[in-house]
Amino acid sequence: MMKKQSSHVIQIALTQMACSDDLDANLARQVRLIETAARAGAQVVCTQEIFRGQYFCQVEDHRFFETAETIPGPSTDAFSRLARQYGIVIVASLFEQRARGLYHNTAAVLETDGSILGIYRKMHIPDDPLYYEKFYFTPGDTGFKTFDTSYGKIGVLICWDQWFPEAARLTALQGADILFYPTAIGWHPSEKAEFGHAQHDAWETSMRAHAIANGCYVCAANRIGRELVLGPDGKPVSPDGIEFWGQSFVCGPDGQVIKRASIDQEEVILVPADLARVEFSRTHWPFLRDRRIDAYQDLTRRFIGG
């Protein structure tokens, strides 16, 4: 008779909130949400992408480099105290100043003793209307990483990484049972009526597919609210800004959404992640077993056939 896989449950939490141009107020709000999650029993908490300020990449403007911080720095110092006080692991998304003239979109992972276990620097950097990230962020050089925390092995990727199956696969292959994606994604209000439903559906479906293909939990923490970033003249750089669609979610290894946050409310979602489901999924849907690693060499090419 087959022995039943024993349960190892990790309480995971995602926070979502609106952001202003007040860096300290945003940090205080994020601290409050993490405390709320910890008091509710969370063991691993993930923030949304670059929570400390507005999503400034709507414009290419050198003044926003002044909002970056070092690691360690003010945010990791605050989160270190929280991690130590509550005995939690925190995944914190930050605009990192690595050196003069060198900046990254970075996630820091803080351990239960308040130490920085490691960092992941965003590998895929977009450049789209109102998402001018290539102006600000140097592509990551950490590679894809899994972190062996006190509560289990987690992988961390960031926003645009969500669309790339290679990123999820290479992180899962390092043993990650849970993938976290700090995120800042939303609608262009003028396009929402025509494309909004399909855009959101594609975003969520892509990550649910990562969960299925890798037999792991996937968690996306998104922001909410409409953000109008002001230019040097005090006027919005875009008349409509970006309407962030919230809907942070956690899905299981079968790709089914376990819990989804609202479109427009600040909140914390808390989900128990039973790692027995990871083992069950990977043995019953043995995609990792059946990979033809001898036939994938061309994945390192930009294009085949021309």
Quickly list its features.
disordered N terminus; alpha+beta; about 25% helix; six-stranded mixed β-sheet; Nitrilase/N-carbamoyl-D-aminoacid amidohydrolase; globular; 5 helices; about 300 residues
Proportion of residues in β-strands: 25-35%
Q: Radius of gyration in whole Å, from Cα?
A: 19 Å
What's the story with the biggest beta sheet? 6 strands, mixed
Strand order of the largest sheet: 5-4-3-2-1-17
CATH architecture classification name: 4-Layer Sandwich
SSE succession: EHEHEEEEEEEHEEHEEEEEEH
CATH C-level label: Alpha Beta
Low-confidence stretches: 1-5
Helicity range of the residues?
10-25%
Query: Structural class, from secondary structure content?
Result: alpha+beta
According to DSSP, the number of beta strands is 17
Distance between the terminal alpha carbons, to the nearest Å? 54 Å
Q: What global shape is seen?
A: globular
Please report the number of helical segments.
5
Number of domains: 1
Give the rounded overall mean pLDDT: 96
The CATH topology is what?
Answer: Nitrilase/N-carbamoyl-D-aminoacid amidohydrolase
CATH superfamily, called what?
Carbon-nitrogen hydrolase
Summarize the structure.
The chain is an alpha+beta fold. The protein has helices at residues 23-39, 74-86, 165-172, 189-214, 276-284, and strands at 9-16, 44-46, 89-99, 102-110, 116-121, 127-128, 131-132, 146-148, 153-156, 178-182, 186-187, 217-221, 224-227, 242-245, 249-251, 257-260, 267-274.
